[in-house]
Design goal:
Blueprint: H1 2-10, E1 16-19, H2 25-37, E2 41-45, H3 58-72, E3 73-74, E4 80-86, E5 89-96, E6 105-109, E7 112-119, E8 122-125, H4 128-134, H5 144-161, H6 166-172, H7 177-189, E9 193-196, E10 203-206
């Protein structure tokens, strides 16, 4: 019980979301795939946005979540359910591990499936570039140590020039195209860099 209070105190983040109840399977599917496509995460059902516990009937919520997983996620997202009894009611903890089968897509409407990633405390629709690159990055690979120096170089370049294309980075940071693309996707996923892909030539800016 104490662990749950401490978890709620952390507030919503890149790896945590609160839900009073699951009312829209299509909408929760976007959250589920965004966690699976990024670093994994948890949804606490029975917790309001302000962190107060309202409690739920876990069986009802599992039914709605299973519907979202099997009808609105492609491929279906793996989840683990844990029921936590609190003084205020039952909280259903939904644990979504980072997926090795990314990218997962969420059904927006008939014949319209889209990919989402987690950026800070929001589920954000991905660009085609990020979606494609998710398949290149094994879920088990940790990039933090490898990319620290190169990340810093990219951030310095963006501070100086404000917006740069993939080609700019390969030349200025002396990186291969593939390496630059992976680094930039990683930094987009971390919320450090923003991709603007509606332009004729996509470019990046600081978030």
């Amino acid at each position: 019980m104490q662990e749950m209070y401490l978890l709620i105190l952390q507030g919503e983040s890149e790896v945590l979301e609160f839900k009073k109840t699951i009312t829209h399977p299509a909408r929760i599917a976007r959250t589920l795939v965004s966690f699976a496509n990024t670093r994994g995460g948890q949804i606490l059902v029975g917790v309001q946005d302000d962190g107060s516990i309202c409690g739920v009937d876990p069986e009802e919520e599992k039914y709605s979540l299973d519907l979202a997983i099997h009808s609105f996620c492609d491929p279906p997202v793996q989840v683990i359910y844990q029921e936590v009894e609190m003084d205020e009611g039952t909280v259903l903890k939904v644990i979504i591990p980072e997926s090795a089968a990314k990218p997962h897509l969420a059904k927006v409407k008939e014949d319209d499936w889209r990919s989402y990633i987690r950026v800070k405390d929001e589920s954000v629709q991905t660009s085609k570039l990020v979606e494609k690159s998710l398949t290149l990055e094994p879920a088990t690979e940790t990039l933090e140590e490898k990319v620290d120096h190169q990340q810093q170089r990219i951030l310095e370049l963006l501070k100086k020039y404000r917006k740069l294309t993939l080609k700019d980075f390969t030349q200025m940071a002396n990186l291969s195209k593939q390496r630059a693309k992976r680094l930039l996707v990683y930094m987009v996923l971390q919320g450090q860099v923003r991709l603007h892909d509606k332009e004729k030539e996509p470019f990046y800016t600081l978030s």
